[in-house]
């Protein structure tokens, strides 16, 4: 544990971190990648180029400084980040590297203001925080390996099928190369896919939600094809245009802290926008097949009907369930967007609400849910990329 003196020193750096945090993390990544270019195979280059990773790390460091006397307050953030780490294959040996270059960046940016006392306190604090991450991630890795068919880090899978679901979304079905079972997972979780793309210097790793209920036989991801010139599109374009049935890729075990509570019998409202429908499909199919009596509402927003995936299968499941309702809006076909009146009409009373979609969509929907008086503890949401903060009215 940190001494009170060092806690006070860490807290005294909060104003400096608020002012210079992103500069520090930008210098950190630059210096670390120059010294350890192999780590470029782990990090998302798009998030780096857009500054999202730097901002996310800056926010994490700031939160740690603010709560250094009560690190339990940031455990939810630790768990969320740890889930991303295990899906990327982060290992304990990488933490000392991060610590070295993070402390170096603090000294480089702050200069003489980074006194030996400040650097010493932060070095000790980083060790405690790193140990917390390593411990949480070890438990996650152990749990992954303990599952039937489970494994740690990455494993070879063959593309068993490839099905076009809409004008922009295609599903990919993967089975283990070794012919074994796939582990169960919580509906809503994701996997990482590791891609070696011709012409790309580094490996690309991307996370995609599992879009079907666990079946022990295969994983399914459903991917939106991004534009050729969109930096986010390198992986999706490769998957859509180049990955063929019979090809082999490496996948991580399922991870993620956004998932359906299958132990709870309370009503469920699923709200998705665009390709955010994917984790909802795993949740809805799970409810339909395991607890069909559980009340559920499925609300979806898409640009057009031709863009929407899974409409037919959702309608078929909805018709087969006595306590299900389904509503879809198409913004470019005159239906408008999911708004307060739509939510008041369709969100089930007393339900746990799960939301997934583009960040602006989630900001709008979740703000309205809060404004309607829905308990924050009953609103669950997921988005990919670094853990950025959602700007939510009434939050």
From TrEMBL:
Family annotation (CDD domains): flavohem_like_fad_nad_binding (cd06184), Yhb1-globin-like (cd14777)
SUPFAM superfamilies: Ferredoxin reductase-like, C-terminal NADP-linked domain, Globin-like, Riboflavin synthase domain-like
EC id: 1.14.12.17
Domain Globin: 1-138
The entry's keywords: Detoxification, FAD, Flavoprotein, Heme, Iron, Metal-binding, NAD, NADP, Oxidoreductase, Oxygen transport, Transport
Binding site for NADP(+): 274-279
Superkingdom in the source lineage: Bacteria
Names of the cofactor(s): FAD; heme b
Limits of the FAD-binding FR-type domain: 152-261
Pfam family membership, one: Globin
Binding positions (FAD): 206-209, 383-386
Annotated site residues (Involved in heme-bound ligand stabilization and O-O bond activation) in this chain: 29
Reaction(s) this enzyme catalyzes, per UniProt: 2 nitric oxide + NADPH + 2 O2 = 2 nitrate + NADP(+) + H(+); 2 nitric oxide + NADH + 2 O2 = 2 nitrate + NAD(+) + H(+)
Cofactor comment text: Binds 1 FAD per subunit. Binds 1 heme b (iron(II)-protoporphyrin IX) group per subunit.
Region entry Reductase, spans: 149-395
Active-site residues per Swiss-Prot or TrEMBL entry: 95, 137
Top EC group: oxidoreductase
GO MF annotation, one: nitric oxide dioxygenase NAD(P)H activity
Site (Influences the redox potential of the prosthetic heme and FAD groups): 84, 382
Residue numbers binding heme b: 85
Entry text on domains: Consists of two distinct domains; an N-terminal heme-containing oxygen-binding domain and a C-terminal reductase domain with binding sites for FAD and NAD(P)H.
Family classification: In the C-terminal section; belongs to the flavoprotein pyridine nucleotide cytochrome reductase family.
NCBIfam families: PRK13289.1
HAMAP family: Hmp
Biological role: Is involved in NO detoxification in an aerobic process, termed nitric oxide dioxygenase (NOD) reaction that utilizes O(2) and NAD(P)H to convert NO to nitrate, which protects the bacterium from various noxious nitrogen compounds. Therefore, plays a central role in the inducible response to nitrosative stress.
UniProt name for this protein: Flavohemoprotein
Native organism: Sporosarcina jeotgali
């Amino acid at each position: 544990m940190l001494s009170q003196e060092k806690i006070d020193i860490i807290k005294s750096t909060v104003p400096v971190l608020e002012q210079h945090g992103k500069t520090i993390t930008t210098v950190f990544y630059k210096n670390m990648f120059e010294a350890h270019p192999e780590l470029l195979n782990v990090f998302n280059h798009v998030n780096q180029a857009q500054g999202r990773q730097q901002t996310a790390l800056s926010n994490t460091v700031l939160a740690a400084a603010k709560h250094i006397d009560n690190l339990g307050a940031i455990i939810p953030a630790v768990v969320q980040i740890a889930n991303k780490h295990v899906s990327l294959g982060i290992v304990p040996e990488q933490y000392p590297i991060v610590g070295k270059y993070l402390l170096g960046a603090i000294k480089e940016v702050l200069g003489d203001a980074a006194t030996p006392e400040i650097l010493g306190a932060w070095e000790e604090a980083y060790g405690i925080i790193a140990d917390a991450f390593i411990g949480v991630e070890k438990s996650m890795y152990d749990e992954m390996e303990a599952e039937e068919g489970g494994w740690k880090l990455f494993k070879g899978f063959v593309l068993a099928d490839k099905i076009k679901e809409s004008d922009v979304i295609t599903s990919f079905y993967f089975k283990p190369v070794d012919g074994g079972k796939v582990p169960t997972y919580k509906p809503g979780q994701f996997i990482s896919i590791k891609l070696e793309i011709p012409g790309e210097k580094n490996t690309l790793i991307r996370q995609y939600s599992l879009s079907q209920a666990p079946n022990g036989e295969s994983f399914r991801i459903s991917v939106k094809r991004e534009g050729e010139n969109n930096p986010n599109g390198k992986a999706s374009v490769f998957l859509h245009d180049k990955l063929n049935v019979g090809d082999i890729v490496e996948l991580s075990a399922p991870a993620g802290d956004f998932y359906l509570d299958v132990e709870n019998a309370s009503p469920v409202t699923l709200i998705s926008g665009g390709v955010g429908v994917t984790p909802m499909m795993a949740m809805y199919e799970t409810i339909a097949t395991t607890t069909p009596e559980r009340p559920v509402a499925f609300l979806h927003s898409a640009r057009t009907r031709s863009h929407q995936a899974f409409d037919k299968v959702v309608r078929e499941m909805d018709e087969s369930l006595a306590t299900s309702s389904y509503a879809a809006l198409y913004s470019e076909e005159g239906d408008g967007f999911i708004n307060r009146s739509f939510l008041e009409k369709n969100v089930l009373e007393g339900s746990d609400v799960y939301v997934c979609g583009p960040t602006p969509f989630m900001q709008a929907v979740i703000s309205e849910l809060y404004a309607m008086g829905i308990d924050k503890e009953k609103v669950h949401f997921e988005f990919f990329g670094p853990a950025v903060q959602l700007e939510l009215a009434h939050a």
